[in-house]
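Design job #97: recover the sequence.
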């Protein structure tokens, strides 16, 4: 069978839509070979490449709050520091590097000094993702080797080319960039900066969408950049977009109807048990963080994939 690669775009909170896409693929029994991610897409890509399944990802999303990811800094580099994001990912991934992951992963950032795309495939996964998510003007830039990393969406919000470079025969791209048209009015400077980034990204998304064999555009543009409370609705939009595209995905992979039916049946049977050790990892609430616990699972997790 041809190898499927996933290209997951940035989109702030809308990145939870990628979890729904992964869930639809799993339920259909469609395996993927590699994944590339930008910004919030890099967070989902990193965890998926480490073996964290969509059910566990939904548990994480259900309890996630902004204080788990960032701190107010008010420094000359930006008002928010996202080192908490790196610490959380290091905890979930147990400090894994790219070479330790069971599936190929590429994380895309932008070098603020040269203005060029940076595709990271070695070293600390959490460090790379931190840089990919560093929205300039909001988060402190991240030093990586001789580069100063900021959000990858500035140069490559839809990482189809890095996905193809990892050996994907078929590239399934998930674009969360809002389509032209009205969106909710920004209420603060951070939302203004994020909206400006959305507009800037359209040109590079249009360029890289041409490299996709299948392009999904879940209807998530009406969700706010920062509204974590609507994670379930966002994930559902991603799942719906992927389920609607299943015939095209199967055709691109060369799956016959009989093979597709067998794969889906096997996926349903496998769903009766745990997805992986990563998805059954124990968790606890850190009371010191001051955030409410998720009703679905204690949060944040004590350990990640083994």
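Job complete. Output follows.
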């Amino acid at each position: 069978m041809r190898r499927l690669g996933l290209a997951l775009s940035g989109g702030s909170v809308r990145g939870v839509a990628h979890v729904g896409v992964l869930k639809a693929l799993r339920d259909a029994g469609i395996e993927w070979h590699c994944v590339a991610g930008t910004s919030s897409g890099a967070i989902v890509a990193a965890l998926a490449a480490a073996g964290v399944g969509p059910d566990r990802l939904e548990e994480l999303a259900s309890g996630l709050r902004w204080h788990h990811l960032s701190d107010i800094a008010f420094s000359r580099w930006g008002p928010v520091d996202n080192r908490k994001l790196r610490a959380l990912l290091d905890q979930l991934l147990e400090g894994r590097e790219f070479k330790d992951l069971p599936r190929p992963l590429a994380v895309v950032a932008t070098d603020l000094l040269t203005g060029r795309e940076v595709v990271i495939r070695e070293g600390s996964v959490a460090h790379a993702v931190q840089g990919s998510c560093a929205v300039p003007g909001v988060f402190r830039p991240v030093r990586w080797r001789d580069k100063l990393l900021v959000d990858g969406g500035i140069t490559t919000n839809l990482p189809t080319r890095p996905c193809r470079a990892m050996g994907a025969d078929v590239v399934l791209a998930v674009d969360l960039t809002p389509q032209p048209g009205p969106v909710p009015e920004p209420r603060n400077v951070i939302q203004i900066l994020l909206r400006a980034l959305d507009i800037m990204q359209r040109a590079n998304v249009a360029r890289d969408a041409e490299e996709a064999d299948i392009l999904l555009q879940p209807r998530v543009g009406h969700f706010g950049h920062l509204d974590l409370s609507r994670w379930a609705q966002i994930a559902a939009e991603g799942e719906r977009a992927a389920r609607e595209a299943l015939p095209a995905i199967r055709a691109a992979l060369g799956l016959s109807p009989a093979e597709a039916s067998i794969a889906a049946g096997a996926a349903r049977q496998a769903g009766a048990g745990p997805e992986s050790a990563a998805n059954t990892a124990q968790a606890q609430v850190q009371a010191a963080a001051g955030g409410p616990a998720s009703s679905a699972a204690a949060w944040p997790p004590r350990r990640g994939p083994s």
